[in-house]
Amino acid sequence: AENLLSAIETSKETSFARFFYALGIRHVGDVTAQLLADHFGSMEALKDASEEELMAVEGIGPEVAFSIRSWFDDNKNLRLTESLLDAGIRFTDLREARTSPLKDRTFVFTGGLSSLTREQAKNIVRDLGGQVASAVGRKTDYVVAGGNPGSKLRKALELGIPVLSEEEFLALAYKNQEIKKP
Questions:
Q1: How do residues 98-129 score in pLDDT, each as one tens digit?
Q2: Under a CB-based contact definition with an 8 Å cutoff, are residues 68 and 50 in contact?
């Protein structure tokens, strides 16, 4: 029973971007949600933003801005958001991302990870201010290689891109961070 209660409490903690994405607003994917979370910083600021303010964010066009504004203009959606927050949803501290060594770095994952799912690893990168790419290129900062890595590892070595083990990735992610590891 304690494990269940602990799991429920842990599930209430998420990033603002992930929460916003999970609302299911039309045209808002995880990248758009992250852009808006980074720009506005709070649900209050985002729900009060005009279409013009939304479009001022690089990467947000009129269709997305209209969709977001329309969603927040619907009272049932506002009640839903308030109910979720009242139920104890908490956002992870954005200060963590500002000081993270992952901030503004691009990561590519290859091979199987042993202590995390691929999605958990990607969320760590995003939550700490980094980006995740699906292919290795000149703009890739790190490749994280798990068990049985594929052609991405070869490409990283050819381009001289640093390759990290899963353990090295986690050590880098949580360096100087006062947050709990998954």
A1: 567 888 899 999 999 998 888 889 888 887 88
A2: no
Q: What is the pTM of this model?
A: 0.55
| Residues 33 and 109 placed together within one structural domain of the fold | no
Residue 181 falls within a domain, yes or no? no
Long-range contacts from 46-50, C-beta under 8 angstroms, 24+ separation: 46/20, 46/72, 47/72, 47/78, 47/81
Tokens of 24: 């299911």
Determine the residue type at 33: A
Contacts 24+ apart (CB under 8 A), 130-134: 130/100, 130/102, 130/103, 130/104, 130/105, 130/106, 131/104, 131/105, 131/106, 131/107, 132/106, 132/107, 132/108, 133/106, 133/107, 133/108, 134/108
User: Quick one: which of 48, 176, 18, 173 has its CA closest to 109?
Assistant: 173
Domain of 166?
Answer: 95-173
What digits encode the pLDDT tens for the residues 157-175? 999 999 999 999 999 887 7
